[in-house]
Design a protein that fits this description.
- This protein is mainly alpha-helical and 404 residues long.
- It has one domain.
- Helices cover 70% and strands 2% of the residues.
- It has helices at 22-37, 52-67, 72-96, 100-130, 148-168, 171-191, 194-210, 214-229, 232-239, 250-266, 277-280, 288-291, 300-333, 339-356, 365-385, 388-399; strands spanning 12-15, 18-21.
- It has a two-stranded antiparallel sheet.
- The longest helix has 34 residues, at 300-333.
- The two termini are 19 Å apart.
Length: 404
């Protein structure tokens, strides 16, 4: 339920002075239930992981970023939502997802949330195209999310997981994976996110190259891309990047990155602090009227550097590197039932990096939850899969009391 509610961070309210969201409420309930059920078996929990030390260092970097931020209150809110809560939720997943069946349940929750938010957005965009209220040279209309790019940022990594399940999973996993791949392709195309197109292309080609029938699959992929390129709205949306017209984001990104680099020259160690970028970047804008709506640098390297300082940037590179190593080993040598999940998470990281070259792939409530949830599934596969199904089942039965 918590995974399915990831897009529900947009439903917000206050408890007195404390701002919260529906997603945060679901995370807190998950943590409380897990703590209650684990109260007598905490020693049997999985604490050791190659992610543990870099995760703790990343928490330290975030804490420093709170101290150095211009607004401590705003920074604490981001620290809670983007670091503490999703990382704690990931720890829960490592300990309760002890079989591929449970992993499927978790990713299915992510699929459901992404499908609801993404298809709702696609309907709004399609309606605008049909009634000529939306021109593809403009930013697409949205529902639930605040920008169409946010839809692709959340959906494409899940398409990577679903695609791996569709190719390599068991029969029921293939059916679920194929269903979400179909939905995810529609959602991504209708988002008109050019960064999303780039990330999706990288994921699709990586999936094709991983398969033993890569040659015919590659031919089908190229044919599909050619057909998609002939669709007028898609073609126009991509080609405006080659023209000096409204809707071209290349120049605005270059101006934004240039201003961010100038900011980092003055603050190379600590960056702007959490939530500090909009305030501290203003003196470095050369074209403020075109950049005023950017609250982040829209680049994965600059983003972590600005928000969490040099320590946070290096630590996140460490975490992603460990993610690739763990999932590559799991894909090549892990238990058969877990292998599709390892490949899927590895390709999800590819999507994060590719889209992150031109956007913000982590610093949102849903994206940070998705990131740590997927990494946790990969380590759960290494932890419990290596013990064998019998041992994992016995361990689960002993350490997880039944409710009711």
């Amino acid at each position: 339920m918590t995974c399915a509610l990831a897009p529900a961070y947009t439903i917000r309210w206050h408890i007195g002075f404390y701002p919260t969201t529906l997603l945060e409420a679901a995370i807190v309930i998950s943590l409380v239930v897990f703590a209650w059920e684990s109260r007598s078996s905490w020693r049997s929990l999985s604490w050791r992981s190659p992610f543990l030390i870099p995760a703790l260092v990343f928490l330290l970097a975030g804490a420093i970023a709170v101290v150095t931020a211009p607004s401590k209150v705003a920074a604490l809110g981001l620290y809670r939502a983007y670091l503490l809560e999703p990382m704690a939720f990931g720890f829960v997943l490592v300990n309760v997802v002890r079989t591929p069946a449970r992993a499927l349940l978790i990713v299915s929750g992510l699929f459901v949330g992404a499908a609801v938010a993404g298809l709702a957005n696609s309907v709004v965009v399609a309606d605008g195209l049909i009634h000529h209220t939306y021109q593809v040279t403009q930013s697409p209309p949205v529902v639930i999310y605040l920008t169409a790019n946010a839809v692709a940022l959340y959906v494409v990594p899940l398409v990577a997981v679903a695609g791996s399940l569709a190719l390599y999973g068991q029969r029921h996993e293939r059916a679920i994976g194929a269903a979400f791949v179909a939905a995810g392709l529609v959602i991504t195309v209708m988002s008109f996110s050019r960064g999303g197109y780039l990330a999706l292309a990288a994921v699709v080609f990586a999936l094709v190259l991983s398969h033993r029938r890569r040659i015919p699959l590659l031919g089908l992929t190229l044919l599909g891309l050619a057909i998609l390129a002939l669709v007028p709205p898609v073609r126009t949306r991509v080609l405006i990047e080659t023209q000096n017209v409204y809707g071209n984001t290349i120049q605005s990104r270059l101006d934004l990155w240039s201003a961010t680099i100038n900011l980092l020259r003055e603050r190379p160690i600590f960056g702007a602090g959490l939530a500090g970028f909009p305030e501290r970047i203003v003196p470095f804008f050369s074209h403020f009227h075109t950049l005023a709506n950017f609250i982040d640098p829209h680049n994965i390297i600059l983003n972590f550097w600005v928000e969490t300082g040099l320590l946070g940037l290096l630590t996140m590179a460490w975490i992603i590197g460990v993610g690739f190593a763990v999932n590559w080993q799991g894909w090549r040598r892990g238990p058969e039932g877990w292998r599709p999940y390892h490949l899927g998470v590895m390709l999800a990281l590819v999507a994060v990096i590719m889209h992150g070259m031109v956007d913000v792939p982590y610093f949102k409530n849903d994206l940070s939850l998705e990131f740590w949830a997927l990494l946790s599934l990969s380590w759960a596969g290494r932890t419990w899969g290596s013990r064998g199904p019998t041992v994992a089942a016995v361990s689960t039965a002993r350490s997880q009391p039944h409710l009711g």
